Amino acid sequence: MERANCPMTCSSSPVCPSVNKTETESEGIGTGEAIVCIEDMVETRVRRYQQFENGLDRLCTDLRLTPSAHLDLRRYAHGMRSWMRGDLDWSLETIRYREHAHSQ
């Protein structure tokens, strides 16, 4: 399914409305379209994080952060990266999604 088919503006909304069953039904969005929207949302947010991480040194300079604050921000960014990776690993390993995939 192509991203252009996604009727929702998932990448710009904090939470993809397709996740909400009531809105999904009212918009006529099926499971496939909702999955495309979620994929789009995740890709957009990962890209935003990567841009943030790549611009971290400049951000710290622009904000005139102390070396200590810069280190704290780097640690926070590393923690966020680890959290995202952990979430990905869990979603790939959990039976929760494998069962759903097999039932369709």
What are the key terms here?
mainly alpha, 2 domains
Topology (elements, then pairings):
Blueprint: H1 21-27, H2 31-54, H3 56-62, H4 67-93, H5 95-103
Main pleated-sheet profile: none
Order of helices and strands: HHHHH
Distance between the termini: 16 Å
How many domains make up the 3D coordinates? Answer: 2
Number of strands: 0
Structural class by SSE content: mainly alpha
Number of alpha- plus pi-helical segments = 5
Q: Residue-averaged pLDDT, rounded?
A: 78
What does this protein structure show overall?
10% of the residues are buried. The chain has 104 residues and is mainly alpha-helical. The chain has helices at 21-27, 31-54, 56-62, 67-93, 95-103.
In short:
The chain is mostly helical and about 100 residues long.
